[in-house]
From TrEMBL:
It comes from the Bacteria. InterPro entries: Invas_SpaK. This is Invasion protein B family protein.
Length: 124
């Protein structure tokens, strides 16, 4: 299955997918206001989200954050999500295994990612 096909199965409207190409990003706004981005770059699928949190808050919440980034996550190629510094805080991201698309598991990847994002963002 292609990224486009997987996104169609998730209910992304055709009008949004019309301009989706191999260097596009689709943003999904969650009920809690967090944004989950799905990007394709050089035939690789990334899932990522900015987290507005200070380093101090992240350190204070390290007891809950560390298990999130050290526990393996299904269908993430490196096995784990990564948390890195960016402009206004940090960014949680993962490289999605293409087998997740073939197995129609993109929705599971997004749900798992969202769960991790909620925990880390809860430290803010």
């Amino acid at each position: 299955m292609t990224v486009r096909g997987a996104l169609m199965q998730l209910g992304v409207p055709d009008r949004i997918l019309d301009d989706f190409d191999s260097h596009s990003t689709i943003s999904i706004e969650t009920e809690g206001g967090a944004v989950i981005n799905i990007s394709v770059s050089d035939d690789r699928l990334f899932i990522w989200s900015p987290i507005k949190i200070s380093e101090e808050r992240l350190i204070d919440g390290s007891a809950v954050v560390l298990p999130i980034i050290t526990t393996p996550m299904r269908d993430i190629e490196t096995g784990h999500l990564t948390l890195g510094r960016c402009n206004d805080g940090f960014e949680l991201k993962g490289l999605v295994n293409v087998e997740a698309l073939a197995g129609d598991r993109l929705h599971e990847v997004i749900n798992d990612f969202y769960g991790a994002l909620r925990v880390i963002a809860g430290c803010a």
